[in-house]
# Entry
Amino acid sequence: MEEKKLPEGLPEGINLLGNGIKAINEMGLKVYSVLVDDVISGQIKEEEKIERVMDGLISFGDIPEFVELYRKLCRYLYPRYPQLVGEHVSMFLKDFMPNDEEENE
# Structure
């Protein structure tokens, strides 16, 4: 993940919070990288489990490294589960890609 430094002079609690969030994101990236590899390698085959992995990745959708993992998984899954992938991509776009109408409000 890209190294981001917190601005100096912030209260200690803010620095601790920021560092905690960063650590959670790094741990999440490690866990989801393994899960995506497990889906691609066939170790995770059940559609419900695959959907949970996709749901989890969406919750990190504002972090570029997670978006890349999500794309990788969707590209792999699309031939087998086009409806599932389509529904999840629609959710992702709704949550993280504002449309023109929302920007103009």
User: Anything to note?
Assistant: The two ends are 33 Å apart (CA to CA). Residues 12-41 form the longest helix (30 residues).
